[in-house]
Design brief:
heterodimer, A: mainly beta, eleven-stranded parallel sheet, 34% strand, elongated, B: three-stranded antiparallel sheet, 3 helices, 22% helix
């Protein structure tokens, strides 16, 4: 009888491996936690300590953590080193405080001041490979305030690195793959947003830093660089693409040593002391065209594109963070490199230079963004 | 029996007196000072999960800063970040952190020992991952222009993308 029962138990274990060896889980986190604090529901939400333990030690491909609004104070490094996979990334999603849905929907996602705040102090906050982090605010002084590993993505995150030590990152992609969308980065003495190997950074805002964006190869799209020493610091990195951005109010809009094989198309480079500066004349492999220049000195060792425009683009109120095109008119309207019948398509297309794509459809509307609100400090 | 009851009621008295400080709990107060705040807002309360970290800055005489109102007493700090913060006698720290941290010549933050000498880097795991020595004796004698970890990362990146 004993042997029979043992054999039966072993068989059941093989038939139901998911029960024995774990599966992707959906978990819930609040500031103080609740109930059993095992993360299985909002009623039993993880607190910070239990979330950290699970994230650092037990996170599995496909896991999702829903993190409710509130302040999460780190007292040591929060570093989730387990990897997701390409098919099953691990997701961490900030939702508004008081969310009750299980699981939450996109309508519960947190924006602006409602995003969960990770008060990191001197500690690191990092996610490893194949993670997606949505909807967080972070304050930090760490060298790499908010760091993502390979093939990881950040969406709607605001990070403020207030360290006075030079060269520290607010937001950073380390290694390769991944992307940043709708992110805001500010680093008082360092880099707002840094890419390493051509990761796209789109619809983002970096400002009031030494370098707004720093390249290890950068693909910057429809983003704003505002009031930095260097708006985009390419260093000597080659192969960058900057398309439809606004670079405003910097000492150097784009600063490079001898960066080559880059593309600069449809950018407004406005209100900078120097628009684009190369240390050497060795930038002939760079492609510049359909940009607008309006700076104290537009270029140094740079040749403007044949369709470039020199003159005030008429941004509405850039000193107040409004980089839309003035309603009273702009030389950027419909002036961009854009699809047209020369490439074999039919129809009339319109693209503006810069980040503001003026409503150009007969029905009106234009695209609605996620509604993120800057938490600039 | 009488002594046990007396001790029991005294402990209850402490519990009743120790109220949860909602105003200063679960908040981010990094680099802020409370010297101008009325000490009654702090005394005999429990503060949970707040960040009071004070970054050491070039020119600061002391690593540890005295930020709380004079005469603060009876405060229980639970799970707070009190790095580089002076907690006066008469107050209690439960969990959380109360380290001394200072940037070193390698441009990274290090935890200091009681003699204010560098003991280990805050990001010790990163040093180990990158193969950089986390021994305090290997901290450069001169202040570097770039973080030692950053230099190593660039070297690795260059080798992967020649």
């Amino acid at each position: 009888m004993k042997k029979f029962l043992l054999a039966l138990t072993l068989s059941l274990g093989l038939l139901f491996p998911a029960v024995c060896f774990g599966a992707a889980a959906t978990m819930y986190v609040t500031v103080a936690g609740d109930g059993d604090k095992d993360g299985t529901s909002w009623a039993n939400a993880f607190d910070l300590a239990n979330w950290e333990t699970d994230c650092e030690g037990s996170a599995e491909a496909g896991d999702i953590y829903y993190v409710a609004g509130g302040t999460y104070t780190l007292t040591d490094n929060f570093s989730c080193q387990n990897d997701g996979t390409a098919a099953l990334p691990i997701k961490v999603i900030g939702v508004t405080s008081g969310t009750t849905a299980e699981p939450p929907t996109v309508s519960d996602w947190a924006y602006g001041a409602n995003r969960p705040l990770i008060a990191a102090g001197a500690n690191a906050l990092s996610w490893d490979d194949y993670w997606i982090a949505y909807n967080f605010q972070v304050t930090t002084t760490h060298s790499n305030g908010f760091e993502l590993g390979s093939y990881s993505t950040g969406y709607n995150n605001y990070v403020y690195n207030s360290s006075e030590t030079a060269g520290r990152y607010a937001i950073r992609q380390y290694n390769f793959g991944g992307a940043f969308y709708f992110c805001e980065g500010k680093s008082t003495s360092g880099i707002g947003i840094g890419a390493q190997n051509g990761e796209p950074v789109a619809f983002s805002y970096a400002h009031d830093s030494t370098d707004c964006y720093k390249s290890g190869s950068l693909f910057l799209i429809s983003s704003v660089a505002d009031t930095c020493t260097d708006g985009v610091d390419l260093v000597s990195q080659d192969g960058n693409s900057l398309i439809n951005n606004v670079i405003y109010g910097c000492t150097n809009g784009i600063n490079a040593t001898d960066s080559a094989f880059n593309s600069f198309i449809n950018n407004i480079i406005d209100g900078n002391t120097n628009g684009a500066v190369w240390s050497t004349a060795n930038e002939l492999t760079n492609f510049w065209d359909y940009n607008i220049w309006n700076n104290t000195t537009d270029v140094s060792n740079v040749t403007k594109g044949v369709h470039d425009i020199t003159g005030d683009p008429g941004l509405t109120a850039p000193a107040d963070g409004d980089f839309t095109l003035s309603s009273s008119g702009s030389n950027a309207i419909a002036a961009a490199m854009q699809l047209n019948t020369n490439v074999g398509v039919t129809g009339a297309y319109k693209v503006n230079i810069g980040v503001d794509q003026d409503d150009n459809t007969a029905a009106g509307g234009g695209s609605g963004g996620p509604g993120w609100v800057s938490m600039s400090q | 029996m009488k002594k046990t009851l007396i001790i029991f009621f005294l402990m209850c008295g402490v519990c009743i007196a120790q109220s949860f400080n909602e105003k200063y709990s679960y908040r981010d107060f990094m680099n802020q000072s409370f010297k101008h705040i009325d000490v009654s807002e702090f005394n005999n309360t429990t503060i949970v999960g707040s960040n009071f970290y004070q970054e050491w800055k070039e020119g600061d005489r002391d690593v540890v800063k005295d930020i709380f109102p004079d005469g603060m007493t009876g405060v229980v700090f639970e799970k707070c970040n009190l790095d580089n913060v002076f907690v006066p006698d008469g107050n209690i720290v439960i969990g959380g952190a109360n380290r001394k941290i200072k940037v070193q010549n390698d441009l990274e933050d290090w935890v200091l020992d009681e003699t204010l000498k560098a003991k280990e880097p805050v990001s010790k795991g990163e040093y180990e991952r990158l193969g950089v020595s986390a021994d305090p004796k290997d901290i450069p004698k001169e202040k570097q222009a770039k973080s030692v970890l950053e230099k190593k990362r660039e070297k690795i990146s260059t080798s992967l993308n020649p």
